[in-house]
Specification:
Layout lengths: L2 E7 L3 H12 L4 E4 L16 H8 L3 H5 L4 E3 L1 E6 L2 E6 L11 E3 L2 H14 L3 E3 L3 E7 L4 E6 L5 E11 L6 H5 L3 E3 L5 E9 L11 E6 L4 E7 L4 E9 H21 L17 E4 L3 E3 L3 E2 L2 E3 L14 H20 L6 H24 L2 H6 L6 H11 L9 H4 L4 H14 L1
Parallel strand pairs: 1-2, 1-10, 2-7, 4-13, 10-19
Antiparallel strand pairs: 3-6, 4-5, 8-9, 9-10, 11-17, 12-15, 12-16, 13-14, 14-15, 18-19
This protein binds flavin-adenine dinucleotide.
The site of flavin-adenine dinucleotide has 37 residues, from helix 1, strand 8 and helix 7.
Length: about 400
């Protein structure tokens, strides 16, 4: 039985970043990935803060070479009202741009790079079980020939995303406190993309704060388009190969017929039940990172950034532990990851209850406040010098009240 310092389950962004860091620290790592790459996964618009994580894991230069679409901000729309955030105007000093990525290519680039650096990655390797012992863990996986193989490691990082391997095996799943929603999406040839469309992600709110549409432009002239809404709406939109969804995007007034006559790259796909929580993020011999922990909602494109953040943090602490140094997983991992997730949770809730939309679509927002909000949208959610982070529980509803009072005066 082969033995490693760490086994990482899953080769998405959280797994690759974790493996890259451990390899840099000279720990032996095995990555077990269920699929063959490239494989599709949703989650295409990155946030500037993930650039820091890619940089620290020595993965940034490889991604730079691909030529992904540069993203410099986010544009929110409601009817004719538009609110633009530019990452160059931020409270936190950090990255002022990032990318919009086709995930099959992005994830493949990260995996190629870690393999180049010497990390062993096995594809078509589905983790079925993990047996925890005092000094080492046994990870059982099925290879492409259907054989059950066991590998040993001092530590296991679960980066299995929507697969949620350890949360399922250890009964750690917890329902989300957010309303169940779903999404329907496709990629299309965006012939009518105008200069004005720029390189931002577009988020169009509709149905009285309940639903929204995304448009994420890629560098090859294709665009990812999707709608998020309650399960009833998404079920309705997805019937008959997404007939209603296609008609909706073709005729959606706010898009001014940009998607009227387009060819789809693939028929609309749906995803439901993605908002989920977890009882604990670590235990003896393991830690969860990325979507294997908690996933909230896609509206602020926070998923990959939280995945690279937690993947990196998990790897740092795992390295510390296998080097024989004590680790405070509660305070240095779970509480830290939760802090970032909780900031986004406040913004997600405020988006759907209308408070954030009141602020975004106000006649006027003070530039300083807008810059502070922009840093949240850029993913810098651990910067406590930002009042929109420090007081995330209360600040949005307070500001929304002020805006409403002013506008009704
Ligand atoms: C509708 C929607 C839109 C989104 N849009 C965005 C966005 O614009 N920007 C953004 O940042 N995020 C977005 N997200 C979130 C994003 O999809 C995830 O947060 C991100 O992919 C998480 O990365 P990860 O590394 O944790 O997991 P993943 O990327 O899911 O990777 C996990 C890997 O683990 C593998 N795996 C699973 N089970 C096993 C097993 N048993 N054995 C071995 N391997 C296994 C999988 O095959 C997969 O390759 C969106 C989510 C949804 C639902």
């Amino acid at each position: 039985m082969k033995t490693y310092d760490v086994i990482v389950i899953g080769a998405g962004p959280s797994g690759s970043v974790a493996a890259a860091y451990l390899n840099k620290m000279k720990d032996s790592v095995l990555v077990l990935e269920k699929e063959t790459f490239p494989r599709f996964v949703i989650g295409e618009s990155l946030l500037p803060h993930c650039m820091n994580h890619l940089e620290e894991a020595d993965l940034l230069e490889a991604v730079k070479k691909v030529g992904f679409q540069i993203k410099t901000g986010a544009s929110f729309y409601k009817g004719n009202t538009r609110c633009d955030f530019s990452f160059s105007e931020q409270h936190t000093k950090g990255w002022e741009w990032t990318w919009q990525v086709q995930r099959e290519q992005f994830d493949q680039t990260l995996v190629n790079e870690i393999q180049k650096k010497g990390v062993e990655v096995q594809f078509n390797a589905t983790v079925k079980n993990v047996i925890f012992n005092t000094d080492f863990q046994q990870v059982e996986y099925e290879n492409k020939n259907g054989q059950l193989i066991t590998a040993k490691a001092k530590f296991v990082i679960d980066a299995s995303g929507y697969g949620r391997v350890l949360p399922k095996l250890l009964n750690l799943n917890e329902p989300s406190d957010l309303k169940a929603r779903g999404a329907v999406f496709t990629h299309l040839v965006d012939k009518n993309r105008t200069e004005k469309a720029g390189n931002n992600i577009f988020i169009h709110a509709f149905n009285n704060n309940e639903a929204w549409l995304w448009a994420i432009p890629f560098s090859d002239g294709h665009t990812s388009v999707g709608v998020v809404g309650n399960e009833e709406l998404i079920n309705e939109f997805s019937l008959n190969n997404g007939e209603k969804f296609k008609t909706f995007i073709a005729n959606f007034e706010d898009l001014k017929e940009r998607f009227k006559e387009v060819s789809l790259i693939f028929e609309p796909r749906t995803i439901f039940g993605y908002s989920i929580g977890v009882k604990q993020m670590y235990g003896d011999g393991y830690v969860l990172c990325g979507n294997s922990t908690e996933f909230l909602d896609p509206v602020f494109s926070s998923g990959v950034t939280l995945a690279t953040f937690s993947g990196l943090q998990a790897a740092k602490l795992a390295h510390q532990q296998i080097s024989g140094n004590p680790v405070d997983w509660k305070n240095d991992y779970e509480e830290v990851v939760k802090k970032g997730v909780d900031v986004f949770r406040s913004y997600v809730k405020a988006w759907y209850n209308g408070d954030l939309q009141t602020i975004f679509f106000a006649q006027e927002i003070q530039p300083q406040l807008k810059n502070q909000i922009c840093s949240v949208l850029a993913g810098y959610v651990w910067d406590e010098t930002n009042p929109f982070i420090k007081k995330h529980n209360t600040v949005i509803s307070t500001l929304a009240k002020v805006v409403r009072m002013k506008e009704n005066a």
